[in-house]
Amino acid sequence: MTRILFITATRIGDAILNSGVLQHLIDTHADARISVACGPLAAPLFRATPGVERVIVMTKQKGGGHWLSLWRQSVGQRWDIVVDMRGSLTSWFLWAGQRYVKRPNPKAGVRHRVEEAADVLRLDAAPDTRIWLDDAGKARADAELPADRAVLALSPAASAVFKEWPTERFSELALRLTAPEGVLPGAAIALFGGPGDEARAKAVAEGLGERTVIDLTGKLDLVEAAACLKRAQLFVGNDSGLMHMAAAAGTPTLGLFGPTDERLYAPWGSRAQIVRAGDRFDERERRALADTSTQSLMGALSVDQVERAALDLLAQTERA
Hints:
By secondary structure, the protein is an alpha/beta fold.
């Protein structure tokens, strides 16, 4: 039996970008018993992950108290492998046969987060991201989505308003794609988002007229959402955790980017593309925007641009 502690991200998207490394550990250690340490938002992702017997939820505390809590919950175990995707000091104060800790590498230049994750285990190639489903999640997808027509998945919200494409443009795009002459004629339009995103989903739905709209915003857990996304013929959404989830599920995924840097955060995989609005910001500027920006910076991205990118993505997917 191989005891593994895998310390991963707080945010859903970042945890998904690390998921290929976790799958590599599962594939190379058939007898693994894995404990995953992560934030409360990402914790539900690991409900159906093979080999995961425990999820240690790290709720942020003042003065880094959540790291002390993790140490207290894991110090009594002799770990065969500790993998720390967050580069914390905590992992150095645990007994480990092998220890892999993420470290800054300024010489590497700008690299995608998936490639950075692969470097932690010194892998030759960056692994595909993964999302793990269970029967309950698949059953929810069967119950929510029609089996007799295509599904267009939209995610109009994001973690920060500056990353959000205007809702009326989501509506116009969906009308074009699902029109009789569109690439997904008659498709149902499924809206995705978390708790708190309902107003944006409602605004998109109000612009869709008589189209079949399935609003799943705030109604699904993460595994159920992933199962539903896997059923879609196309996903279009802002830079968000749901975008990374769709790509990990293998759904043709079009990410809408503006201030954030797609070189770091583009949806990963051969069935994923991005389309950009204007100039990107570097990471320091992006963090400042998260604290100060109160409006969308995605206005330069037109419906025509996104429609062309969606058609190109679907054409490439079909050829592959």
